[in-house]
Amino acid sequence: MRLLHTSDWHLGRAFHRVNMLGAQAEFIGHLVTTVREHAVDAVVVSGDVYDRAVPPLAAVELFDDALHRLADLGVPTLMISGNHDSARRLGVGAGLIERAGIHLRTDPAAAGTPVVLADDHGDVAFYGLPYLEPALVKDEFAVDRAGHEAVLGAAMDRVRADLATRARSTRSVVLAHAFVTGGESSDSERDITVGGVAAVPSAVFGGVDYVALGHLHGCQTITERVRYSGSPLAYSFSEAGHRKSMWLIDLGADGSVTAERLECPVPRPLARIKGTLDDLLADPALARHEDAWVEATLTDPVRPADPMARLTERYPHTLSLVFAPERSPDDAGASYARRLAGRSDQQVAQDFVAHVRGAGPDDGELDVLREAFDAVRADDAVREVAR
Locate the Calcineurin-like phosphoesterase domain: which residues (predicted)? Predict the structure, then answer.
């Protein structure tokens, strides 16, 4: 059986100030084309379909379009809810939608109830484990400690118990949304440490043929049978080095796994550049980034004037500007308390200006600061008299 494994669509999410709905629609089109051209037997989507619990209408419309296009292909699709999704909202109408071959699995209680598909070699049981927030599902799974490993382990016990009742030739696929030990995170995944230690060992998933993971945005192989597809689009500059893709999985008659990465369309490349403003504007080696979405880190010891306006003249798609001036080790190592000791309020304000800008206030700015502090002290004096 041939599977297409994807996850973390995050429909409705923006990239900094850029609306990504067009790129997300392009990905859905690419997904549908891939299913058709590669003769895929089933699509699995491992959570975070939406970017938030109450998605914008445009994201819901795109999801609706995706469901119709997948249903029109006649290829079964299985989806679980992730930690960004509202499981109850995503699962509305699941019973009706299932008649069209779209199987939404958002209820933790149904972890041990599979969707069973068949090919020429027999049955394949697909188990959907939606994101399991330990504090919310510990009673359902009767675990003593509300931790990710405990609830996932209990859910997998249900999976293995159901498998034990089926023919030995039955192959198995698990969809799960979790942080598995060995995976590499990025800046764009929402923290799931609330409710216990986030990472769970891959051994939790023992006894099944393939585990289609979601949550981490980089495509990764934890083991040959346990993989992350990653997100189809980049949602932070920490993903600048990612190859966005999906897994094409061939599940053999004996449960063997053959995997191939299929690239996803890239709306615009990402670049992280660092140096002084003058260097970034002049370096010919950076010409390849002029059409990319850019995060620029400036190392000028003094904050330059109008840095964003000047950067966008060369890099018109600059989205993020970071100021990280190069300072001496002695300055960087000085403790905040030690730097403030014995200094007046106005001196502290002057130091703050110097820290942020790289140079202290000039005479005119000193006068402004002095007048501001005098006004504050006068106001305090008036309030003291009024008491």
Answer: 1-218
252, 11 Cβ separation under 8 angstroms? no
306's tokens: 């109008």
User: How much is the pTM?
Assistant: 0.82
Domain end among 227, 246, 263: 263
How far is C-alpha 1 from the chain's CA centre?
A: 29
Closest residue by Cα to residue 173 from 223, 215, 225: 225
Q: Are residues 244 and 367 in the same domain?
A: no
Query: How many CA atoms lie within 13 Å of 59's alpha carbon, on the beta-carbon side?
Result: 19
Residues 12 and 147 in one domain: yes
Helix, strand, or coil (residue 311): helix
Give the bridge partners for 11, in sequence order: 50
What is the mean pLDDT of the segment spanning 112-135? Answer: 96
| Domain ranges, residue 106 | 2-263
Note whether 74 and 220 are same-domain residues.
yes
Between the CA of residue 203 and those of 130, 181, 385, what are the distances in Å?
A: 18, 10, 71
Other beta carbons within 10 angstroms of residue 328's beta carbon come to 9
Q: With 90 as the cut, is the pLDDT of residue 192 above it?
A: no
d(C-alpha 381, C-alpha 142), whole Å: 63
- For 305-309, the CB contacts below 8 A with 24+ separation are 307/277
The SS3 of residue 117 is: strand
Tell how strand 270-275 and strand 18-19 pair up.
unpaired
What are the backbone dihedrals phi and psi of residue 254, each rounded to the nearest 5 degrees, phi first?
-95, 10
To the nearest whole percent, how much of the chain has pLDDT over 90?
77
* Domain stop point among 198, 232, 263: 263
Domain holding 87: CATH number?
3.60.21.10
Cα–Cα–Cα angle for 93, 230, 181, rounded to 5 degrees: 105
Q: Which residues, listed in sequence order, are joined to residue 228 by a DSSP beta bridge?
A: 213, 220
Asked if 249 and 43 count as a contact pair (C-beta separation under 8 A), the reply is no
Query: Contact at 8 Å (CB) between 60 and 92?
Result: no
- Longest Cα–Cα distance of the chain, Å, equals 91
When divided into structural domains, the chain yields a total of 2
Residue that the structure tokens 């972890």 belong to: 111
Dist. CA 304–CA 324, nearest whole Å = 12
User: Is 116 in the same domain as 247?
Assistant: yes
